[in-house]
Amino acid sequence: MLKSIIAAAVVIGMLATPTFAAQKAHNAKITVVFDHKLPNLPGKSLRGVLVEYGPGGYNPSHTHAKSAFISATVIEGEIKSKVNDGEERVFKTWENWIEVPGDHHQVSANASDTKPAKILAVFVVDTDETELTTPDP
Fold first, then answer.
1. Can you tell me the distance from the alpha carbon of 33 to that of 75, in angstroms, rounded to the nearest whole number?
2. CATH 2.60.120.10 fits 24-135, yes or no
């Protein structure tokens, strides 16, 4: 009985942490590197998210916060990306793309199995949005 209670507590603790959803990712690290309220746009914030992929790394198919407008720039390596029904593309260092509210990011991965890759994703988002990324069920 005690083992069952402890196991349930561990699972509940994992579900409560923001990194639980990222456990489906492979060889990927996500870090919020800045978060600023926009004084000229009340209720909006500018958030920078660094996505670091090791060789062969990827994130699962996902959507972003409902209010999110995103500009993503590859700052190292090459990234495979597919948004909505668009074509899957490989973006090289300093190339970028945008995502608008409601977009479905179907592919987000390092294009290399031997070199790392990094993206800086800059979000304009409602300040009260706490979850920036939601993996598909």
1. 14
2. yes
Q: Give 10-55 pLDDT, tens digit per residue.
A: 333 333 334 334 447 999 999 999 999 999 999 999 999 999 999 9
Instruction: In whole angstroms, give the CA distance from residue 85 to residue 44.
Output: 28
User: How is the chain split into domains, by residue range?
Assistant: 24-135
Rounded Cα–Cα distance for residues 72 and 98 (Å): 6
Report how far apart, in Å, the C-alpha atoms of 53 and of each of 16, 38, 67, 79, 102 are.
24, 29, 25, 9, 24
**Backbone φ and ψ of 16, nearest 5°:** -80, -15
